[in-house]
Automatic annotation (TrEMBL):
<feature type="transmembrane region" description="Helical">
    <location>
        <begin position="218"/>
        <end position="238"/>
    </location>
</feature>
<feature type="transmembrane region" description="Helical">
    <location>
        <begin position="147"/>
        <end position="168"/>
    </location>
</feature>
<keyword id="KW-1133">Transmembrane helix</keyword>
<feature type="transmembrane region" description="Helical">
    <location>
        <begin position="326"/>
        <end position="347"/>
    </location>
</feature>
<feature type="domain" description="DUF418">
    <location>
        <begin position="238"/>
        <end position="399"/>
    </location>
</feature>
<feature type="transmembrane region" description="Helical">
    <location>
        <begin position="295"/>
        <end position="314"/>
    </location>
</feature>
<dbReference type="InterPro" id="IPR007349">
    <property type="entry name" value="DUF418"/>
</dbReference>
<keyword id="KW-0472">Membrane</keyword>
<feature type="transmembrane region" description="Helical">
    <location>
        <begin position="110"/>
        <end position="140"/>
    </location>
</feature>
<keyword id="KW-0812">Transmembrane</keyword>
<feature type="transmembrane region" description="Helical">
    <location>
        <begin position="258"/>
        <end position="275"/>
    </location>
</feature>
<protein>
    <recommendedName>
        <fullName>DUF418 domain-containing protein</fullName>
    </recommendedName>
</protein>
<feature type="transmembrane region" description="Helical">
    <location>
        <begin position="73"/>
        <end position="90"/>
    </location>
</feature>
<feature type="transmembrane region" description="Helical">
    <location>
        <begin position="359"/>
        <end position="381"/>
    </location>
</feature>
<dbReference type="InterPro" id="IPR052529">
    <property type="entry name" value="Bact_Transport_Assoc"/>
</dbReference>
<dbReference type="Pfam" id="PF04235">
    <property type="entry name" value="DUF418"/>
</dbReference>
């Protein structure tokens, strides 16, 4: 009779790689700042560039967010997702524990949370996309780290390459770049979003969210799925290499990531902004698609540079990145809370502040919200092991209720 293989259990605090939690917290702040305009405006304009109508501090802040944060924060978060997968798989293999069923439930749980978020709270959800890629990640778990890296780069290049092909096709004679008909359709879609979110009740907003999911989100998977899965695999390969777990040994690699990743990312981003600072998806043109492609492509090297920078800082004794670690451990709870607070504040079924706040006021509100989340995280994790949504997710994943409260006399350091 063969003994059953024990399943994986939730990771304990001492086993966590602190740099991952700190980076996850920083990425969470970046995602919030990136999403501010989409909370307060039509989601179809989520990937647009710097609003040319903004002036003064609004324009300065919008420029900073677009240049320094947009496409970098979600890229960093995707790399960290892959790193978490590799860490979880490594623990399972080292302990001789079952992994496939656990990660399958974990991914299914994330998909369910993402659908609730996308349909019931905010249509700009990324969790469903991540969950779909997680299923593919599970199927690729037996590959070597070299194969992960090669396949990840290939998928990422395929996603950006597809966008480059679209840009190139738009330069050919007879290929439509969008005209009055496409512009009218984009304006109608924008008006529908404004009517539902700014003035409609909850039912109208929910109907619009579901429409957006099936009409826009799913269509976007042609590019987003290879990009996200590629980033997952690159992050997994980086984690398995031991670079973050033993930064002293891999200092040369980290310094190269910082130096060359920073230079390449800045160059691609600068080229994008120089070509078209305000690309729009309302009407496709060769220059707007090329600018967006360059901007997205700049996200990966800059995210790798950010990982290297934070890891090297922590290895050198810096403490300030650790202030973000508690929020990073509760990233899912905070991501959902940000959507709940923003939609309650701005949408018509809440306080109805849509269109009444300047961009500067929105950024300030986002910073205050994140500061409150950081303080709450530190308070919560001195008393509890996991964030509330993370605890429920783990309970579903491991088919048992993990201990939630921190034992008296064993408070966690956060």
């Amino acid at each position: 009779m063969t003994a059953s293989v024990p399943e994986l259990a939730p990771v304990s605090v001492p086993e966590r790689v602190t740099a991952l939690d700190a980076l996850r917290g920083l990425a969470l702040l970046g995602i919030l700042l990136s999403n501010v305009a989409a909370f307060a405006g039509p989601l179809n304009e989520l990937h647009d560039g710097i609003d040319p109508t903004l002036r003064g501090s609004d324009r300065a802040l919008a420029t900073f967010v677009y240049v320094a944060i947009r496409d970098k924060a979600w890229t960093l978060f995707a790399l960290l997702f892959g790193m978490g997968f590799a860490a979880m798989l490594g623990r399972a293999q080292a302990g001789g524990r079952g992994f496939g069923a656990v990660y399958l439930r974990r991914s299914a749980g994330l998909a369910a949370i993402g659908l609730i978020h996308a349909w019931a709270i905010w249509a700009g959800d990324i969790l469903v996309t991540y969950a779909l890629c997680a299923f593919a990640l599970l199927a690729l778990r037996r590959l070597s780290d070299e194969a992960w890296l090669a396949l990840g780069c290939a998928l990422y290049l395929a996603g950006t390459g597809f966008m480059l092909l679209v840009a190139a096709s738009l330069t050919l004679p007879g290929v439509a770049q969008g005209g009055a008909r496409e512009l009218a359709r984009a304006q109608a879609e924008r008006a529908a979003e404004v009517a539902a979110y700014a003035h409609g009740d909850y039912a109208a907003a929910a109907a619009q969210r579901v429409h957006f999911f099936f009409d826009t989100t799913i269509a976007g998977w042609a590019v987003m799925l290879p990009l996200a899965l590629g980033l997952f695999l690159i992050g997994a390969a980086l984690m398995r290499s031991g670079t973050l777990a033993d930064p002293a040994r891999h200092r040369a690699r980290l310094q190269a990531m910082l130096r060359y990743g920073g230079a390449l990312g800045v160059g691609l981003t600068a080229a994008s902004v120089a070509l078209e600072p305000a690309p729009t998806v309302a009407v496709y043109t060769a220059s707007s698609v090329l600018a967006q492609t360059l901007h997205i492509a700049g996200g990966l090297p800059l995210a790798l540079a950010a990982i290297a920078a934070v890891t090297l800082l922590l290895e050198a004794g810096a403490r300030w990145p650790l202030r973000f670690a508690a929020a990073g451990r509760m990233a899912l709870t905070h991501y959902l809370t940000q959507s709940l607070v923003a939609t309650w504040l701005l949408y018509g079924h809440g306080l109805g502040q849509w269109g009444r706040w300047s961009y500067s006021a929105l950024i300030l509100a986002a910073l205050l919200l994140f500061a409150a989340q950081m303080a709450f995280s530190a308070w919560w994790l001195r008393r509890f092991r996991f964030g509330p949504v993370e605890w429920l997710w783990r309970a579903y994943t491991y088919r048992r209720w993990p201990p939630l409260r921190v034992e008296r006399g064993h408070a966690q350091r956060v």
